[in-house]
Amino acid sequence: MNDAHFMQANSINEVIICLDKIIRSCEEKSSRTGYFASLYKAMTLGVQTGIEQKVFEDSARMERLDVAFANRYLDAYNMYISDRQPTHSWMYAFKASEQMNLTVVQHLLLGINAHINLDLGIATASISTSDNLESMHHDYNQINEIIANVYNSMDKALRKIAWPAVFLRPFDMGGTNSVINFSMQKARDTAWNNAKLLVGMSSGIEDQVIRNTDSVISKVATAIQNPGGIIKWLTRSILLFESKDVTGNIMALNERS
What we know:
Elements: H1 12-29, H2 33-52, H3 59-81, H4 88-96, H5 104-126, H6 137-152, H7 155-161, H8 184-198, H9 203-225, H10 229-241, H11 246-253
Helix pairs in contact: 1-2, 1-3, 1-11, 2-3, 2-5, 2-6, 2-11, 3-5, 4-5, 4-9, 5-8, 5-9, 6-8
């Protein structure tokens, strides 16, 4: 059965089911797209736990955001495996998965770049109005704290894949020609600002803004793929030690041996 049959979700449980299917498919094909899918599943499980523990002011709204956010990724993945063109940001990330000269951390960052810098603002605006967006800000920050904590918790898996990867934890693109100094905090702030810009906007203008944003974020993807300065040498050093077993790496990111 084609992966495309699993590419839409209506609940957070369905998001996890879709991500599991993508991860299994990537393991079978030894596809590096499974790296970000594994991270994203961990993020989604973290959000699900937050909902169950009632850490949000409006749990139902946060599930709607999670689903809208996830469907941006699922749509992009579906388009890619169907030989159609997703956003430029996602196309960079997916095409990069075919390369052997990037570290696992770079693959994760390329997915984070496309999904948070571009998709999160769009998803947030899609479930909001100009009147109620600001009321979401507290929960928005909560959900992104979960995302950041999950990424930080990947250290153990990354050390298993390549012990020098620990030195890339503060991966900072500021030394490159990137138009955005890439970091998780800046990505979340960018997404919130994009949501404020997009909410209530007419569809024609919204599409143009999204295309322009996608173009800018694509340049960040280029910087992640081709870092400068000391990061360039760190990534090359890590690549020498990093496991070339793609399936094994995906399993490590999912804490399966």
